[in-house]
Fold these 2 entries.
Entry 1:
Amino acid sequence: MAKALGLQIDILSRHAVERRLRQYFKAKSFTSHFIVTANAELYYQASRDPVLKRAVEGADLRLPDSAGVLWALRRQGARRAELYPGVELTQWLFGQDLRIYVLGARPEILSRLADRHIAGRHHGFFTPAEESRLISEINRLKPDVVLVALGSGRQELWIAKHRGRLKTKVVIGVGGAIDVLSGAKRRAPYIWRKWRLEWFYRLLREPWRIKRQINLLRFALAVLLERK
Ligand code: UDP
């Protein structure tokens, strides 16, 4: 476990994360273990918003999802911190023999996902009034895992609020991973990721993200100002 900007993150190798998840899936009961994939934006939001912070800290596993978070953790002395981006975790889950429910993303994106392994799906543009029906549908299907893609911050709040009612073994906030997996969006090519410029690649392709990316600057500043 390591801490940066007041938020605890688990320091585990990929192998250890996958082992832990296999244990969760093996259990007979529906304990809806909550996994957070923490990127810099979520991290910054949570460091400013006590409700979101509590939601993230209530998770069973918090994994560093982005280069910025890795940098913040390493500055705080967590040398062994390893990235496990949500998109790669999602790909790994799709490669296992699991029944997956996807909640979130746009309807046309969801319809592109192959049926193999998909126990059910629902887009992420529902109203609070539709939530009970949605949760009943998930509970009827009893999937091994629910992937929640509602955007960072919002999805963690949603999970923290509803996980107690969900009949599933694991529930994970996966952000834009479904967009990438469906083939609708491309992940930054390897070289951009290697140079920790994934955020810049995203900005070039989706310039309207600039407003949200200002939070990345705020995050960097807060990390630099934090005492080691
Ligand atoms: N999304 C959704 N409902 C919403 C807002 C967003 O289902 O009300 C989906 C969006 O279509 C995308 C995913 O949430 O598939 C992640 O959104 P975004 O890329 O904005 O989030 P990030 O991963 O950057 O936090």
Note: The longest strand covers residues 33-38.
Entry 2:
Amino acid sequence: MGALTGRDLLRLSDLSVGELQELLELAAALKSGSVTLQCQKTLGLLFYKASTRTRVSFSAAMFRLGGQVLDLNPSVTQVSRGEPIADTARVLDRYLDILAIRTFEQRDLETFAHYANIPIVNALSDLEHPCQVLADLQTIQESFGTLAGTTLAYLGDGNNVAHSLLLGCALAGVNVRVASPPDYQPVPEIVEQARAIAGDRTEVVVTTDPIAAAKGAQALYTDVWASMGQEDLAQSRVPIFQPYQVNEALLEYADSAAIVLHCLPAHRGEEITDAVMEGPHSRLWDQAENRMHAQQALLASLLGAA
Ligand code: CP
Ligand code: NVA
């Protein structure tokens, strides 16, 4: 894993096919206990949006490596008073070994990465959520014993999680179908990038038809209909997204052994029903657990400890 030492992870496509595969293998080995790693370094968390899973799973992963975590709450640091990213990045670079950032603009992550020498990790932006998809792929792999040739159908808003799924599935050899309402499709640049990565190995389908997407799929995946920062749009989106709800009727179209995934937090009764969340196809809690294992593999690799 030496090739990842010192690198940033701003987009999932920063990883090669081989690097993603090695990360997932390491994540599985860390989860099973067949590998233990030590890395007494310091991780900073700079989160401009709320988080439960990402904040805690990154912290737990770093503690498991024997490292330290500093939670750099923007509201009590000078970033909330307008200190430029260029200055903040160069200062944090002198104190920390690695920095995970959750923010709105992908551009801000790129500015941090430009000014800091330490690895910068995208802990969710409006464009991507790459760390989430490491755990998602780990969950599919452990459910089916393979990634290659499986099919994931994402139903809902074609934004950050959908974008990282498109890229991650293409890299991992998973067929990916994204079904979204017409005005909520993934950005063309990411779809084209996913198609270029997939080549003729796997299919990358973007559609408005939820049933076509779900047919025969091994994984159904959804996310909230209004993301963080879009709360005022939540009510107006309900009727637009209702046909994309992951419910028992949609599950009927999927493979009989299909698993259901959701990055969480979920809005029961909107993008997913309570019955499906709590039902036998749900792998939501394993998926959430895998955030910790996948990020432990990522941290160790970026810090040169893998
Ligand atoms: N899935 C996810 O990123 O959850 P949090 O917003 O709680 O970190
Ligand atoms: N799309 C969601 C993901 C939350 C983990 C959001 O950005 O709020």
Note: The pocket of phosphoric acid mono(formamide)ester (ligand 1) is lined by residues 51-54, 124, 132, 263-265 (CB under 6 Å).
